[in-house]
Amino acid sequence: xxxxxxxxxxxxxxxxxxxxxxxxxxxxxxxxxxxxxxxxxxxxxxxxxxxxxxxxxxxxxxxxxxxxxxxxxx
Length: 74
What we know:
Blueprint: E1 11-22, E2 25-37, E3 43-44, H1 47-62, E4 67-71
Parallel strand pairs: 2-4
Antiparallel strand pairs: 1-2, 2-3
């Protein structure tokens, strides 16, 4: 897919790590599929992945988690 920011590159799906901070918590999610631009290296998440990350992060923070390394699919 053509990347809309740099206009020059195309994205490709890759398996990566995403770090989120929420309130005072730091959550590292491994095994997240992102779209990365081959030209500029910028990345983005699709809507369903973003929703899954946010729901999981909110659940973990509500349960008192302050820092952890998690798998998104877990």
